[in-house]
Design goal:
Length: 503
C-alpha cells in the first residue's frame, strides 16, 4: 500500500505539471507572447495550488474517498481542458476568463492532492521519512514531466491528446486506490468505481478521437478547410485551403496567402538583391516556406544560399508536399541551397567571419510578438550580423506594418541604425495583411536600383521607387532601442496590434 501511494505521488506530480505546461503552451499558441502567457499561467496555477492546500484542512474524515474523488475530478477536468479551450477560443468573447478559470480549478484540485496523500500516509512512516519520500517522488515526477513534454508529448501527441492521456493516468490512480484498498475503507465504493470507469471511458474516447476534436476546433478558427496541421516543439503549423487560396498560419498568426504572397516576397527580396552588382552568396534567416528563396534564385549570379530556419517541420513540409512545392517552385530542392535547422541567434554566434561572408542577408521572420523572436530583432543580433556581411553587402528585414504598428516598425529601423547600419525603409500594400513594411541596412547609402529581374508579377521600377515614400501617418518616429535585456519592440508590438485587434 505504501509503495502504491508513493508511486501515486510520482504520477500526480507528473500529471499536474503537464496540465500546467499544456495551458501555458496553448495560451502562447492562441494569444501570443509566450513569456507573458507562461508567467501568468504558472503564477495563477501555483496560487490555486496554495488555495487547494489551504482548503485541504477542512477534509477531516474519509481521506481515501476524498483522494479518489479528487483524482477522478482532475482526470476529467484536466483531460478535457485542452479540447475545451481550443473549442472555446473562437466561441466566447472572454476566452482568458475561461482559461484562468480552468487553470484555477485544476490548480486547486492538484493543491489538495499532496496534503491529503501526506495525511493518508501519516502513521505508516516517521514524519521525516514521510515528507522526504513523498516530496522526492513529487519532484522526480515534475522533472519527468518537464522532459517528456517538449521531447515526446508536443511533437508526437499534440496538446489535446496529451491532456487526455494524463487525464487517463489521473483516473487510473483513483481506480488503483479503489481496487487496492479493502472493502469498507472507501464508503460508496461501487459509486466511486462507476464514476471512475465512466470518466476513464470518456477520456479514452477523447484520446482516440483527439484528431477529430482538433479538426473541429480549428475549423471554427481558420477560414476554409484545414489541409495540414502539426504541433512541433516550436509552434503549431496550420495550412488551410479555400478555393484557390492556400494560407499558412503559425500559432494562429497568418504568414501568407497564396493569392498575394508574391507581392510580399517580391518586395522583400528584390529591392536589396537588385541593388547588388552580382550577389553570389546569400543568407536567408527564417523563410522556411521557400518563397523568399524562390525570388532569390531568380538571380543567375547566385552561387550559394544558406537558409537558417528553426523548425525542421516547416522546411520538411515545404520541400516534400507537392502543393507547397508548387508555391515555392521547388526552391527548397535547389542544389545551391544549404539548409540549417537551428536558432539563427546561436548559429550566427558560432560562425567564423572569414568563412561566412554574404552579399545579401534576407530576414523573413515572424513578427516580434514574443521575447524569443524579439532577440532576432535586437541590437546584439544586428551587431553580430555585421561580421557576416561583405563590405558592400545588404541586409533586409520584414518589419511589420508601419501603419498599424508604427512604433514597432520604426523601432526596427532605429535599432538597425544604432547597430551601425545606414537604413532605408519602404512599404507596400499586401491585401492579406494591409500596409506592410521592410527595412534595408547597409554600410553605405542605399540607392534604389535601376533594374529588376524579368517576370515579376508586382514589382516594377516606378512601383519600387514609390515604396520608399512615407505619408505623414506612417512617417518616422523616435523609439527606444531593442536590446536583449529590455525588449521595447515586443511591448510596442503587443500594444499596437492589441489595440488594432480590439478595435
Amino acid at each position: 500500500m505504501e509503495i502504491l501511494l508513493l508511486f501515486s505521488a510520482f504520477v500526480i506530480a507528473t500529471c499536474g505539471l503537464v496540465y500546467e505546461l499544456i495551458a501555458g503552451t496553448l495560451a502562447s499558441y492562441l494569444l501570443g507572447d509566450s513569456v507573458t502567457q507562461f508567467s501568468t499561467i504558472i503564477g495563477a496555477y501555483l496560487f490555486a495550488m496554495g488555495v487547494g492546500s489551504w482548503l485541504s484542512r477542512y477534509i477531516e474524515r474519509n481521506l481515501l474517498a476524498y483522494f479518489v474523488r479528487i483524482e477522478i475530478m482532475i482526470g476529467a477536468i484536466g483531460g478535457f481542458s485542452a479540447a475545451a479551450l481550443f473549442i472555446l477560443f473562437d466561441q466566447v468573447a472572454s476566452f482568458r476568463l475561461w482559461l484562468y478559470f480552468l487553470v484555477g480549478v485544476i490548480g486547486i484540485l492538484v493543491g489538495v492532492e499532496i496534503p491529503l496523500l501526506l495525511r493518508i500516509l501519516e502513521g505508516r512512516l516517521t514524519f521525516k521519512d514521510l515528507v522526504s519520500k513523498v516530496f522526492t517522488f513529487d519532484y522526480i515526477g515534475a522533472l519527468f514531466a518537464s522532459l517528456l513534454f517538449p521531447l515526446v508529448l508536443v511533437p508526437h501527441l499534440g496538446l489535446i491528446r496529451s491532456a487526455f492521456l494524463f487525464g487517463i493516468l489521473n483516473t487510473m490512480v483513483a481506480i488503483w486506490m479503489l481496487y487496492a484498498n479493502k472493502a469498507g475503507m472507501i464508503p460508496r465504493r461501487g459509486a466511486h468505481k462507476t464514476a471512475a470507469l465512466t470518466v476513464l471511458a470518456l477520456l479514452g474516447a477523447g484520446f482516440v478521437w483527439s484528431e477529430r476534436i482538433q479538426s473541429i476546433s480549428e475549423a471554427s478558427i481558420y477560414p476554409g478547410t484545414v489541409i495540414f496541421a502539426e504541433s512541433t516543439p516550436y509552434q503549431r503549423i496550420i495550412v488551410t485551403r479555400q478555393q484557390r487560396d492556400i494560407r499558412l498560419f503559425l500559432n494562429s498568426n497568418l504568414q501568407f496567402s497564396s493569392l498575394d504572397e508574391y507581392r510580399y516576397h517580391e518586395a522583400l527580396v528584390h529591392p536589396a538583391m537588385s541593388a547588388l552588382k552580382a550577389p553570389r552568396k546569400v543568407l536567408i534567416i527564417g523563410g522556411g516556406d521557400g518563397l523568399a528563396l524562390r525570388e532569390v534564385l531568380k538571380y543567375p549570379a547566385v552561387e550559394t544560399v544558406t537558409m537558417v530556419d528553426l523548425d525542421p517541420a516547416m522546411t520538411r513540409l515545404f520541400s516534400s508536399n507537392e502543393m507547397m512545392r508548387q508555391l515555392n517552385g521547388g526552391a527548397l530542392s535547389s542544389p545551391k541551397l544549404t539548409l540549417v535547422n537551428a536558432d539563427a541567434f546561436l548559429w550566427l554566434r558560432e560562425q567564423k567571419p572569414a568563412d561566412q561572408r554574404f552579399d545579401a542577408v534576407i530576414i523573413d521572420l515572424p513578427d516580434p510578438s514574443n521575447f524569443s523572436i524579439g532577440k532576432l530583432y535586437s541590437l546584439t543580433f544586428y551587431r553580430q550580423l555585421k561580421s557576416a556581411l561583405n563590405d558592400d553587402g545588404i541586409v533586409v528585414i520584414q518589419s511589420t506594418s508601419p501603419l498599424i504598428a508604427r512604433k514597432s516598425f520604426w523601432c526596427v529601423d532605429n535599432t538597425l541604425a544604432a547597430a551601425g547600419y545606414q537604413t532605408a525603409a519602404y512599404h507596400l500594400f499586401v491585401p492579406s495583411f494591409g500596409e506592410w513594411g521592410f527595412i534595408i541596412g547597409s554600410f553605405s547609402p542605399y540607392r534604389v536600383p535601376e533594374h529588376l529581374p524579368e517576370g515579376l508579377r508586382f514589382l516594377d521600377l516606378p512601383t519600387m521607387k514609390a515604396m520608399f515614400q512615407f505619408p505623414p501617418d506612417m512617417a518616422h518616429v523616435a523609439t527606444a532601442i531593442q536590446r536583449l535585456d529590455d525588449q521595447p519592440l515586443v511591448r510596442y508590438f503587443d500594444e499596437e496590434w492589441g489595440d488594432y485587434l480590439i478595435y
